[in-house]
Design brief:
The chain is α+β, with helices and mostly antiparallel strands. It is built from 13 helices and 18 strands. The strands form 4 sheets. Strands 6-12-13-18-17-16-15-14 form an 8-stranded mixed beta sheet. Strands 1-2-3-5-4 form a 5-stranded mixed barrel. The chain starts with 5 loop residues before the first helix and ends in a 20-residue tail after the last helix. The protein binds 4-amino-1,4-dioxobutan-2-aminium adenosine-5'-monophosphate (4AD) and magnesium ion. The site of magnesium ion has 3 residues, from strand 17.
């Protein structure tokens, strides 16, 4: 007989004569002739209550069960007389799979997030983190479903690359050179004799590869890990994060914004319907305004605001910003959050940014100053999506590369796509962790990543 998951047992519509379940003990209470054991198996937030009468064979051993111990129960699923639960389990046998000693760090009911980060290997056993990582899993599935239902193909873009898509130089180097004795030519590492025969790094974005496939398969997306060596210790940056990047042929900036908006709304709706119990935990204990915020995302269309108008609003704002705003400066998170949280009180898509602050691949607008870029900003977080229409005109792309110091020869394959069958196309990248912050109300990105990587932190 196979073990049944608690999530299914609790939804049963009839009692069951014989079931097996396994999980970890959350609490146990003993009375004179029976014990109540609350078991959780990670399949859902709820525990199932197990009653072990004193006449079961190993009752002496059952009495010794501690919080965190692993158990397997064979018994009957019966209607529960208790409040708040429909079913409980009357145990016929309790197998103690392993006893957990008193040193188990999760004895208390509540711990701070800071403390739980120091035991990231155990925190998924708490209600909050169990819920977080179940939601993370469900939303991953929803991402694939969203694109697949719309005819997009899933492309596995490389993690090891020789390019720097964003041109920001925040690269983690990959090398097989002997770091104790790096071979050098003219004082520089001899990458020609390195593994790939040239400089290599971990990808910062799958976009450039995805573009090649959009110009062949039409609508594609990639969803995978990306790496950035930005030395920013903020609550919204990690060195390793996941990005979802759709790329659409024959699509302009307006079409790109339409898909971005539909995508975010779809994921929020999916979370509300498919992760109800877990989301409710966050609404109750983590962020009292969560439900309002999520509903406001579903109800209203996102504001679409040209960058120049965003700057005008911020310049007029009666608010002391730490960083100055003016045309040609990038928006800081304080500016983004002013727009979403205070001015519009809903998501805002800022578009047509100055070309001086955006990467080479974004399509130049006719005004000579801006590019067809868009950032989706959401309440509580700020930027969650960055994207653009891509420059499909070979000559303009080449001169942008020259202006931004990008070596055309190295990107010969990228330029080929503009020589052969070039077509307008657009895409964007959604920071998966930032989206998870949005749907859970969790305010530190480190708490939505199983094992977060940040400056000076790669313990687990
Ligand atoms: O705005 P970014 O840099 O855009 C790109 O990489 C484009 N090549 C994407 C594309 O058009 N296909 O990054 C996209 C998103 C950001 O909006 C943010 O949500 C997230 O990725 N992001 C990070 N998330 C966590 N930690 C970091 N260090 C992040 N850097 C970016
Ligand atoms: Mg960006």
């Amino acid at each position: 007989m196979r073990r049944e998951k608690i999530v299914h047992l609790l939804k049963s519509d009839a009692p069951k004569e014989k079931i097996i379940l396994s999980g970890w003990v959350r609490t146990k209470r003993d009375s004179s002739d029976f014990s109540f054991i609350e078991v959780n198996d990670g399949s859902c937030l709820s525990n199932i209550q197990v009653i072990a009468d004193s006449d079961i064979a190993n009752y002496e051993e059952v009495k010794k069960i501690t919080t965190g111990s692993a158990v397997t129960i064979i018994g009957r699923l019966v209607a529960s007389p208790g409040k708040g639960q429909k079913w409980e389990v009357q145990a016929a046998e309790v197998e103690v799979v392993s006893l957990t000693p008193e040193t188990y760090p999760l004895q208390k009911k509540r711990h701070t997030d800071e403390y739980l980060r120091t035991i990231a290997h155990l925190r998924p056993r708490t209600n909050k983190y169990g819920a977080t990582f179940r939601i993370r899993s469900e939303i991953s599935y929803a991402i694939h479903k969203f694109y697949r239902d719309r005819g997009f193909r899933y492309i596995h873009t490389p993690i090891l690359t020789g390019s720097d898509c964003e041109g920001a130089g925040e690269l983690f180097r990959v090398t097989a050179l002997d770091l104790e004795a790096v071979p050098k030519i003219d004082g520089k590492p001899d990458f020609e004799n390195d593994f790939f025969g040239k400089e290599a790094n971990l990808t910062v974005s799958g976009q450039l590869s995805a573009e090649m496939f959009a110009l062949a398969l039409g609508d594609v997306y990639t969803f995978g890990p990306t790496f950035r060596a930005e030395n920013s210790n903020t609550r919204r940056h990690v060195a390793e994060f996941w990005m979802v990047e759709p790329e659409m042929a024959f699509c302009d900036l307006i079409g790109n914004m339409d898909i971005a908006e539909e995508f975010i709304q779809y994921l929020v709706e999916y979370a509300l319907s498919e992760c109800k119990e877990d989301i409710e935990l966050f609404a109750k204990f983590v962020d009292k305004k969560l439900m309002n915020r999520l509903e406001s995302i579903l109800e209203s269309g996102f504001v679409r605001l040209p960058y120049t108008e965003a700057v005008a609003i911020l310049e007029k704002a009666k608010h002391q910003f730490e960083y100055e705003v003016s045309f040609g400066r990038d928006l800081q998170s304080e500016h983004e959050q002013y727009l979403t949280d205070r001015h519009f009180k809903k998501p805002v898509i800022v578009h047509d940014y100055p070309k001086s602050i955006k990467p080479f691949y974004m399509r130049a607008n006719d005004d000579g100053k801006t590019v067809a870029a868009m950032d989706v900003l959401v309440p509580g977080i700020g930027e969650i999506i960055g994207g653009s229409q891509r420059e499909e005109r070979l000559d303009i792309l080449e001169s942008r590369m020259d202006d931004t110091g990008i070596n055309r020869e190295e990107y010969w394959w990228y330029l080929d796509s503009r020589k052969y069958g070039s077509a307008p196309h657009s895409g964007f990248g959604l920071g998966f962790e930032r989206f998870l912050m949005l749907v859970t109300g969790i305010t530190n990105i480190r708490d939505v990543v199983p094992f977060p990587r940040t400056p000076n932190n790669i313990e687990f």
